[in-house]
Amino acid sequence: MENATIAQHDSSHGTPRRAAIIWIVLLLATATTWTIGERLDAGPMVAGLLFTIAFGKGSLIILDYMALRRAPLLWPLVTLGWMLVVCSVIGLAYWKGLAT
Amino acid sequence: METCYDNPMTTSASAATLPAPVGRRLPGDLAIWFFILAELLAFGVFFLAYAFTRANHVELFNAEQLTLDRTSGAINTVLLLTSSFLVVRAVQIAESGRSRAAAPWLAGAFACGAGFVVVKVFEYSAKLGAGITLSSSTFYMFYLSLTFFHFMHVILGMVIIAAMWNGARAGRYGPDNMNGIETGAAYWHMVDLVWLILFPLIYVMR
Question: Is-contact B88 B55, C-beta < 8 A?
Fold first, then answer.
């Protein structure tokens, strides 16, 4: 009976190794963002890079740490869509700021 | 009667009988995902309000952004990412049927959250000590309100992690009872996710 119950659970949290590799990638990406900040780099290319990095980091959190990679498609699409819209519209607002 | 997952017999049986993954599954409680979507929408509106207000006051925002401590922001990013990693490990360990072994990982995640709070309190103290308040300027209004809104989510997340730690220590989680730990983990990752946009937006983009 217990085994039958256990068999209903579907593992979707990946492996310890994958979680650790993602953690290291996220830390390296954070170091890149911090370096850009300390150098006071500015401009549309820099803003684009910052939010490309943010989108990449967010995607790893959503798909792997939140375990939405193997959730019904609606959920990763809506969450990644939120990231994409927010990052893109921030880019649009940055562009508007250049023109004013 | 509550199932305890730290019986060695149960654990070895679980490991031997875990099936190959099948189908798609939303981890945790469905309600937390609707709550997460509502939170993401709220933060999204605040982020866009900041971005478009900045577009009309670029020089002011760039000048006052220089007064922020980017290193504190980066340290807090590292703390949140590390706590998220520790929560993922706790979930993986609980899923393998070793609920009590997941507890130290959750304690580590809580400690990282506490580290975030300490760094933020020092940051706020420095700003308040310099006479900066919500009414000092448009930039500081956004900086203080957005980061404090997020700060309150970190506090709530720590309460949830403490409850998860308690459940793990009681041996409550296991392969057929993952709902509680997965639900709390999803909330904590959302708190992390939001900070990943907040940090470059307010502290770095110029």
Answer: no
- Exposed/middle/buried for residue B8 (C-beta within 10 Å: 0-12, 13-18, 19+): exposed
Binary contact (B44, A82; C-beta < 8 A): yes
- HEC string of B81-140? HHHHHHHHHHHHHHHCCCHHHHHHHHHHHHHHHHHHHHHHHHHHHHHHHCCCCCCCCHHH
Q: Which residues of A touch B10 (CB under 8 A)?
A: 2
Q: Which residues are paired to B174 by β-bridges?
A: B177
For A39, the closest chain B residue by CA position comes to: B204
* Residue in chain B lying closest to A3 (CA): B17
Q: Which helix (H) or strand (E) holds B199?
A: none
CB contact under 8 A, A9 and B196: no
Determine, for residues A30 and B78 on separate chains, whether the beta-carbon distance falls below 8 Å.
yes
Average pLDDT over residues B90-98: 96
Residue type, A73: L
ipTM of predicted complex: 0.90
CA distances from B114 to B103, B161, B181 (A): 16, 11, 19
Structure pTM?
Answer: 0.90
The pLDDT value recorded for residue B46 is: 98
Of A9, A7, A96, A94, whose CA–CA distance to A45 is shortest?
A: A94
